[in-house]
Task: structure prediction
Amino acid sequence: MSGPAAEETGAVLRRTPQQARSKARLARVLKAAERVLTAEGVPALTTTRVAAEAGVSVGSLYQYLPDRDAIIDALAATYFAQLEAVMEEFVRSAATERWSDPVGVLIDTYAGLYRTEQGFRALWFGSGLTDRTRAADREHKRRMADGVCRVLLALGIAGDIEGLGHACHAAVLAADALAQEAFRCDAEGDAALLEEAKVMLRAYLTALAGRHGRRDGDAVGTGPLDGPVPGAAGRPE
Result:
């Protein structure tokens, strides 16, 4: 991920910037907030501290982000948007790619983001999430689940049957909980736990494919959710 982008936070800002100069200033503020968050943690995310880091006046920052909660909400919104953009990349690629291990590709990619995005980890593990951010996270997970559904459909692993979305949502919730635990105390992620997450999700999604009409003709347990094949493609380009 490239860092917080001002245009991804419009729904949570006190005021949405319209001019290019104002958008650039807000982007600078958000990047400054991310630096403060990474280095000093959630308690340091005050308007005074972030304004000083960004080199802007408190009054200028206050136009968009009036308090710590607003800063947290805005940062979270950018992270959600970036995670969802990666999922959209998978959806597009699934129309033409045939991965030997879709579960492995997804988990490895998102684990890579956890490793590189210190701000995301600092926010999520810093016990400073607001009620608004928690609500936004629930909606974010539903959008991620929708992306997983579309990947399964594009790969021909499951049919478009009622209940598929609910099952994909359950898969996303489980994967997210395991990923957070894997990275909570280890910035590189607990490799063994991540591997167990893959095993669990392969089994669940294989069963899901059986319940929801896999369209590729494979029997459950012998198709593209059973694990990697040597020489298989990785993350979509």
